[in-house]
Specification:
Helix 2 runs parallel beside helix 4. The longest helix has 20 residues. The protein is built from 10 helices and 23 strands. The protein has 2 domains: about 230 residues, Alpha-Beta Barrel (TIM Barrel), CATH 3.20.20.370; about 80 residues, Immunoglobulin-like (Sandwich), CATH 2.60.40.1220.
């Protein structure tokens, strides 16, 4: 009898351990706070406060983005309900609006800095002293290039100088933030957020050769099986972070994908609308796909786990994406998003 009880206890503890850990996380992306002049990239402090309160009230584990990425790279288990908070560009409202609230909740956060406006002391951006102060209370910093240019499009226009130009943009930023912010800069691993969230195969390969993890802006959770040159995040600005959407998105699971046939993102006249073929690890008959404006996309099942997705109309400049979701369990949904860069 004692042996049986011991055996059941071991099974229970093992099951509890499995339930309490996961290999995926949700990453939130912000830009501006309470800057109504920029509705597509700003979130109200009222809504941001509700979001942070929800994370605190519902026992979410908020980790620095670099720590989350490192665990996933090393295929370590994450705590249940892991979330990371990222903020792009480094506008002043990060310090004046978001920082006091994040400090109050003791939530770590990651700021992707494009360093040129800081160097030139733009009043619209953070100062090095403000960033150093925030670094004492949970902030870490990562590369967003020096001058926040359209890297993919610039490379197409000037292929001869592509590698030199992109490398300079990345290395100038890295050198400056390391000099000013030291140990608060993400180094293990080094992380780069693509300006405007735009990347293609050529850029991903260059960024990888420079030793960086690449971060995108199209939506979806990340896992140990994600493409670490295009890690996805959920944008929270422009109406995408209302509380009903927020609650849904922070509980998403990575769509169980075995293979993506087309990994590039470029769309021109010859392939617009683009076609995307996904092979799933298991059948998901409730799969649905949508374009960025919420229009449903027709899908064609090639077999019970392989599906081709293609919009019914040409995608418009400058970018779009296909998002595919399926009900998982309870209130959770599987989620995957593929970026498309529409060329002129």
């Amino acid at each position: 009898m004692k042996i049986l009880i011991h055996y059941l206890l071991v099974i229970f503890l093992l099951q509890s351990s499995l339930l309490a850990h996961q290999n995926h996380a949700v990453v939130l992306q912000y830009h501006r706070f309470d800057e109504d002049r920029y509705p597509s990239t700003s979130i109200s402090m009222e809504l941001f406060t509700q979001q942070m309160q929800y994370l605190a009230d519902n026992n979410y584990t908020v980790w620095p983005f670099s720590k989350t990425v490192k665990y996933l790279l090393e295929k370590k288990e994450l705590p249940d309900k892991t979330v990371s908070i990222t903020i792009d560009d480094g506008y002043r409202s990060v310090y004046t609006k978001a920082y006091p609230l994040l400090k109050k909740y003791k939530f770590p956060f990651t700021v992707f800095v494009n360093s040129a406006p800081v160097v030139h002391e733009s009043v619209h951006y953070l100062t090095w002293d403000e960033m150093r102060e925030m670094g004492k209370y949970g902030a870490e910093y990562a590369n967003h290039t020096y001058s926040h240019q359209f890297l993919v499009r610039d490379g197409i226009k000037d292929p001869k100088n592509y590698k030199k130009h992109i490398t300079k943009e990345i290395e100038m930023c890295e050198a400056k933030i390391e000099k000013e912010l030291g140990a608060k800069v993400c180094k293990n691993p080094k992380i780069l957020a693509y300006p405007f969230g735009e990347y293609d195969l050529k850029l991903m390969n260059l960024v990888k050769s420079l030793g960086y993890i690449g971060v995108a802006q199209n939506s979806g959770p990340i896992s140990s099986e994600s493409n670490f040159m295009a890690l996805t995040r959920f944008p929270m600005s422009g109406g995408f972070g209302e509380m009903d959407q927020f609650r849904l998105k922070i509980n998403t699971l990575p769509l169980p994908i075995k293979n993506v046939l087309l990994k590039d993102t470029l769309v021109n006249e010859s392939n617009n609308p683009p076609s995307l073929t996904l092979t799933l690890k298991k059948p998901l008959k409730n799969l649905q796909c949508f374009t960025a404006d919420g229009k449903k996309i027709a899908i064609q099942w090639l077999n019970n786990t392989t599906v081709t997705v293609q919009a019914q109309y040409s995608l418009e400049y400058p970018r779009n994406h296909y998002t595919c979701t399926a009900h998982a369990q309870g209130n959770a949904w599987y989620w995957y998003s593929h970026l498309w860069i529409v060329l002129e």
